[in-house]
User: What shape does this take?
Amino acid sequence: MQNQIRLNINNDEVLENQYYINEIRRTNDDFFLSFNEKKKFHIITYGCQMNEHDSEKLTAMLKNMGYEETDSYETADIIIFNTCAVRENAELRVYGNLGHIKHIKKTKKDLILAVSGCMMQQPHIVEEIKKKYKYVDLVFGTHNVHNFPKLLSSVYEEKKQIIEVWNSEGRILEGMPYERKLGLKAYVNIMYGCNNFCTYCIVPYTRGRERSREKENIIDEVNKLVQDGVKEITLLGQNVNSYGTTFEELYDFADLLEDVSKIDGIERIRFMTSHPKDLSDKLIYIIKDNPKVCEYVHLPIQSGSNAILKSMNRKYTREDYLEIVRKLKENIPNVSLSTDIIIGFPGETEEDVDATIELIEEVGYDSAFTFIYSKREGTPAARFEQHIPNDVQHKRFEKMLSVLNKTVIARNKTRMGEVYEVLVEDRAKKDTDFLIGRSRENYLITFKGSNDLIGKLVDVKITNPKNFSMEGEIINTPVL
Ligand code: SF4
Assistant: This one.
């Protein structure tokens, strides 16, 4: 299902870009009349949901300009790399892919190559592009995605490399069209940027300071998604727990959850990410009492060692974190917890890793995103002493991962015979009898059933808990 969403606030920048959209569209319509085919674009997105969302906006703008999407470099007339700066690996892949496109550009002179996203918010990377990748036509950042039509028009007119990266975020721009591939589930940004400055993280420098969207715009967007068949919403922000702190009126994330839950047709609400230092009791009670808010919390710990947490500037201790976990479990007995863990941070000792491992066992996570520390230029931690050698990082990581996996698997095995409400998403695989979906707790569950159950909520009894997913059988069949 695809949908165009247009929110209801207009301003000069939206109008200016609409002008360029119309201008380019006219040229592309002429191209279509002459050659009976549309010009094509291909976007490659790296990194997080924020980037995915920016790519949705670029897709909508390009379609409004008369281009059509293609999934190959070779057939594209415009290629955009929407980059991520959080890990070194993703950066290296971008450079590798730019090298590949150089060969395509040699034979396809009109091909436009653009690079956008978090990597471009770092001046040393833009310098590198200027020096070594002169064949890149357009460079823009996270703060001026909405200006893409104007920038693209400049590329066509000036026929030289255009670089425009804003170094500050400005206000939140509502009203640009964007296109999304909708299913039963959708992500909705409720805020942008971050004020926390964890010492390893590049996000506050690439995505700017924290700005919350007005609740009316969020509710408006969710309403439109529901009309298009969405049943589960995930509210997104770098730290949803500080939503609304800049508003004049007292209105926080828990209030927003309440308001979103009043929308008819929304069956489930999830959110991510929650910084532990800002998780309030009020939020715990909303998860406990509001039947639409799922019993799943992603609560990044990063490290179980107080020394490392301090060095990371996380602003909570291991004890603070465990107290939040205690409150969550006391109030919401079936709460499912996931986390982020970084191993190999500068200055880390074997004891620090052991402290993390002990915490993993104590909390009993249901899943986790685990990372080996990667040095990011421009962050304070990059300048720290005592960087951990690569082989030591990997050894410690394996040690942590084996305990984490054992914990997750052991928890899964205890679920034999339990019954979970599952939102049926799709066939588990092509040509199989099995359907797949997630429980309120975010557990991945497969079971036999017919296609007409897709989109429905069903109760499934677990008959075969596997390592990282579970198999079960339906114990009720909804009226279809
Ligand atoms: S909370 Fe920390 S890790 Fe998360 S985005 Fe902000 S600075 Fe980065």
Summary: Confidence is low (pLDDT under 50) at residues 1-10.
